[in-house]
Each structure stands twice: as structure tokens, then as C-alpha cells.
Amino acid sequence: PQGAEEARAFVSAFLKRSMPKKEDEAIQDVLTRKAVVLEHYSKKKAKPQRRKAKGFTAKQRRELRLFEIEPEQRRYAIFLPLHELWKQYIRDLCHGLRPDTQPSVVQSKLLKADLHGAIITVAKSKCPSYVGITGIILQEFKHVFKIITKEDKLKVVPKLNNVFSLEIDGFVSYIYGSKFQLRASERSAKKFKLKGTIDL
């Protein structure tokens, strides 16, 4: 163990190193009057900048064919379980589709719901070749639906100038594609007017 003199000398030397900006008298004054607060001048470390993870561009996604459905997967029977899941999703969304449920309530829910897995039919179109096409929606984009028909054919149907009918548990809803040109993720915040229109 150190003696009193050695301890005093150690503390004095330590304080001189720790407080180089103060004179000996000031250090002694601090020791006799109050507790010592040692000043430590540390260099501020520059915070490493976090790099944001960059996703693929639209061009890269097209080149990689990320959203392409392989020909061997284009079978109607494969996607029937998806349709059953979609029906259950809509029932839960509408709190059960009872006979006394207001059609306007069902319509407003369907307009904002995810339609992947729904069976739709082209009811009206300015292009007669589209009328009557029925199938399960596999992909929805801003301007088109990609649907698989019972004949295992993948159809790309534009929303513009087409009217689609959608039936679930006896409720038939009509969607005017010209007013429906939004991405699926954007529809939840969109306010739709539940009024008919003479414009396809």
C-alpha cells in the first residue's frame, strides 16, 4: 500500500495530466473546496452513414422477368385454392355476407379490397373480343388485369373501356375499369363514388 505522501504525489501528477489548462494553485483550490470533475477531450467519431438498400429498377425487374408466370404454372386448377382464400378474405372483410347486408357496403369494401384471387368477367367492352372473358385474377397492375381462364389461358385485359362483374355469395358488383386505373396498393386511400356512369 502507498503512503500518504506517495498517494498525494500520485494524485497531484494525475491531475496535472488530466487538467493541463489549469495552474497548480487552481488545482489545489479545487482539491480543498469541492469535488474534482476531470475533463476529458475526446475526438468525436464520425457516424458511419447508413446506406439505403436499393431495390431493383423497373427496367431490371423486366429484364429479370420477376413478375412473369412460367408457362407450366398457367393452369386454372392451381389457382382455385387462391380463389377460396380470397372468398374467405372478403367474407371476413364484410363481417359475413348475409342476405340483409346492404349492397353499397359490399361494393365499397370490394373497391378497396385486394382482388388477387377473385373471379371476374368482362361484362361490357368497347372491344367485343373481350366480352365474356372470365377467370381468376393473378396479377393486377395500374392499367391491366392478368387473369387465368378455365381453358388455362393467361389473358391480359386492359381496365380502360371495360366493365367487369364480380360475384361472391350472390352479390354481384360491377367495376368500371376506366375509373379503376390505380395500383392495388393505392386503392385503399382512394375515395370512389358509388354512382353509375355512361362512360365505359
From TrEMBL:
Main location per the UniProt record: nucleus
One Gene Ontology cellular component annotation held by this UniProt entry: ribonuclease P complex
UniProtKB keywords: Nucleus, Phosphoprotein, tRNA processing
GO molecular function: ribonuclease P RNA binding
InterPro entries: RNase_P/MRP_Rpp29-subunit (IPR016848), RNase_P/MRP_Rpp29_sf (IPR036980), Rof/RNase_P-like (IPR023534), Rpp29/RNP1 (IPR002730)
One Pfam family hit: RNase_P-MRP_p29
Gene3D superfamilies assigned to the protein according to its UniProt record, in alphabetical order: Ribonuclease P/MRP, subunit p29 (2.30.30.210)
Xref: SUPFAM superfamilies: Rof/RNase P subunit-like
Gene Ontology biological-process entries: rRNA processing; tRNA 5'-leader removal
Localisation per UniProt entry: Nucleus, Nucleolus
Function: Component of ribonuclease P, a ribonucleoprotein complex that generates mature tRNA molecules by cleaving their 5'-ends.
Similarity section: Belongs to the eukaryotic/archaeal RNase P protein component 1 family.
Oligomer status and interactors: Component of nuclear RNase P and RNase MRP ribonucleoproteins. RNase P consists of a catalytic RNA moiety and 10 different protein chains; POP1, POP4, POP5, POP7, RPP14, RPP21, RPP25, RPP30, RPP38 and RPP40. Within the RNase P complex, POP1, POP7 and RPP25 form the 'finger' subcomplex, POP5, RPP14, RPP40 and homodimeric RPP30 form the 'palm' subcomplex, and RPP21, POP4 and RPP38 form the 'wrist' subcomplex. All subunits of the RNase P complex interact with the catalytic RNA. Several subunits of RNase P are also part of the RNase MRP complex.
Protein name: Ribonuclease P protein subunit p29
Species of origin: Cuculus canorus (Common cuckoo)
